[in-house]
Write a structure and sequence with these properties.
alpha/beta, 6-stranded mixed sheet, 5-stranded parallel sheet, 15 strands
């Protein structure tokens, strides 16, 4: 990622993708124009890189000129678009092709058509490297489009954010979620994971998403996802990862103003970890750390047997079942430990001591993220 002024931007379109799109546009225009000598008109400031690279690739004779319009102020399109620098040559009977870096609302395009209305050109065509169909509000035809993109602010390859970023050879997309802390909290049965999640969500204003609680809620309330999950459970089959991810996505969407999330009980496999990464990336966010509470087996067994005396849970009263649960936890966690360690995101924390002591240890890890 890069930071320009007060905003963060993530990689979005590579230099190679830009080059491929340009070449495709050049080939299409060269074929359509035929033997005419076109006049390529770049819209400053954004199209200076586009226009330069475009005409270098153009295989035939051509002319190049520029006009300059004022349109962007910071992150928003300005309603007031002015023609700052105009045309100085006679374009009567000429084939004119406008080279735009990006077309979103279409306000700039409307001004371009107004400028050329009285120029008596032979033909006027619009070519844009980037196009935001969701934002386009005009009826003017776009004859050549390089890459369609979502309606999010981008910088690079001539496009700027308050003056910065035009010189970047690749394009970056604004990271809309600027400051979010997302944790995967792990711990063997009896490690006190649920207790610590309660303290951490309050201290850091995070939302605790327990996979077990999410499943129970959806099944109890007979949501579409809950009924789908239940259909697999009733057949004794594993619930597909995508169903779980869809449930988690729904929980994240319910809490769009959260400072971050604590994921408890998910992921449990590499495939699930990758799916969670993909989900968070779609939210312009990421998993910051996997934190695992580390407690010796004998202490865990002692804790769970003690808990079983008051909880009424049969699996907390049987030592053999307890040890199997602990063994299963380590077999699954070992895989994920390697996954997150490879990203320098794994943190083991001593889970023995008072609740306050353990919370303090977890807080030291989180505060460093």
């Amino acid at each position: 990622m890069i930071k320009l002024h007060d905003k963060y931007f993530k990689p979005f379109i590579s230099a190679q993708q830009i080059d491929d799109a340009l070449q495709r546009m050049v080939d299409e225009i060269a074929e359509d124009v035929g033997d005419d000598i076109p006049v390529f008109v770049g819209i400053l400031n954004g199209s200076f890189m586009l226009t330069s690279d475009f005409v270098k690739k153009y295989p035939k004779t051509c002319e190049v000129t520029f006009i300059k319009l004022a349109s962007y102020e910071g992150l928003k399109s300005s309603e007031d678009i002015q023609r700052l620098v105009g045309l100085t040559q006679d374009l009567t009977g000429r084939t004119v092709i406008i080279l735009e870096d990006i077309i979103d609302s279409g306000k700039t395009l409307a001004e371009v058509y107004r400028i050329f209305k009285n120029e008596k050109v032979k033909s006027l065509k619009i070519a844009t490297l980037f196009y935001k169909p969701e934002a386009y509000k005009k009826d003017f035809k776009l004859h050549y489009v390089g890459i369609e993109i979502p309606d999010k602010f981008i910088v690079g390859y001539g496009l700027d954010y308050d003056g910065l970023g035009r010189n970047l050879t690749e394009v970056y997309q604004i990271k809309q979620t600027q400051h979010m802390t997302n944790l995967v909290l792990f711990g063997p049965p009896g490690a006190g994971k649920g207790t610590q999640a309660e303290f951490l969500k309050g201290k850091y204003n995070l939302v605790h998403i327990s996979t077990g609680d999410v499943f129970r809620f959806n099944i109890k309330n007979e949501t579409a996802l809950g009924m789908l999950a239940k259909s697999y459970i009733d057949k004794g089959e594993l619930v597909p990862d995508q169903v779980t991810i869809d449930m988690l996505n729904a929980e994240v969407e319910k809490n769009t103003d959260a400072k971050g999330f604590i994921f408890d009980g998910f992921p449990r496999t590499n495939a699930q970890a990758k799916a969670l990464d993909k989900l968070m990336d779609s939210k312009d966010s990421q998993i910051n750390a996997m934190i695992a509470l580390e407690v010796e087996d004998e202490i865990l067994v002692e804790r769970l047997i003690g808990r079983g005396k008051t909880s009424g849970r049969a699996d907390d009263a049987n030592e053999s079942i307890i040890r199997n649960r602990i063994k299963e936890y380590y077999s699954k966690t070992a895989i994920l430990k390697d996954y997150y360690s490879a990203q320098n995101k794994y943190h083991g924390v001593d889970g023995v001591g008072s609740i306050e002591e353990i919370t303090e240890r977890l807080s030291k890890v989180i505060d460093k993220l």
